[in-house]
Amino acid sequence: MNKVAQQGGGVLADNVLPIMTGRGGAELTIVVPTLNERANISLLVDRLRQSLPLLEWEVVFVDDDSKDGTMLAVRDIAASDHRVRGIRRIARRGLAGACLEGILSSSAPIVAVMDGDLQHDETCLSTMFAVLQRGEADLVIASRYQDNGGADGGFTKLRSNASRLATHLARVLLRTQIDDPMSGFFMLRREIVEAVAPRLSRQGFKILLDIVASSPTTIRIREIPYVFAPRLHGQSKLDSLVALEYAGLLVSKMSGDLISTRFLAFGLVGSAGVVVHLSVLHALLPHGLSFAVAQTAAMFAAMAFNYTLNNAFTYRDQRRRGWRFLTGLLMFAALCSFGVVAGVGVSTLLYSGHSRWWVAGLAGAIVGSAWNYITNSAITWRRQ
Fold it and tell me: What is the pLDDT at residue 43?
């Protein structure tokens, strides 16, 4: 794990030393991932204009194909303000991937990431920029957990407790000495992201922690306090799967990226599928069915379960919907049919050799699962 150099304290916003580059290029790119945030777009742009009068800046809204007209709002403003632009992502989902795509689209030497829901204090941007400009840090994090910071107004009690637990786990497991590693509001030199981009996960919500944990070199970090504000419009995009994605990120970084977040998720789904498989097999055997028939039915039941859960969770950023869900299921079944044949053959052979039913069933499940992962990762959920 890389070591992180951290500095404390803040600086005054009026110490910013602007480098006026005119229309030739931006000094700062602000990346804002969005999903159904139409009502907040114009408000955020107005706040940026007021907060950054001395900087050459641009804001890039990276939108996951919102259905509420978010990109239309971005384009309306961009038509009269060259500092505003948008990236519309089709068949791709995920905050971390959106942030990475926006950062890599920038040519500015310094990039910031902030939410589009107006909960992040845009007045901190000039302070953060000043720290980087003076070379006092490579990464500046707006922290909710330093003195004079806070998150009580923007969090429910449940989310506040979950955030603090996640922060504690990151500090203990990854040895990251940051007060707020879960922050989604930060600024850094673009070259840092360029260096670690191939190692970053496209899934999940916490790209900051991923960047810090993935960097092979020391990153000088400064944290400044801010108050996390209540959301004005729209709804939070966090759901129950975020916790599992975060756990996957921790395991991935603890293993030195040997175990990817997606592989771990696939394995968890496969483990649940084994339980389904053995449960169906156990339920069918007492009803007079031959072991081969019962095992075949159990494997297909587990296969349908695994496909549905993987589509909803493991490959949520490439989720198949509508007719594509059905064609994906057929593709999944076709690819797994070879695994079913092999699995039934192996398990039947073991069972006829007087192995316990659950040992034979487990062996068949392992054979089928291996084929399932190898083929479907490359074909069924391949990136378009």
Answer: 95
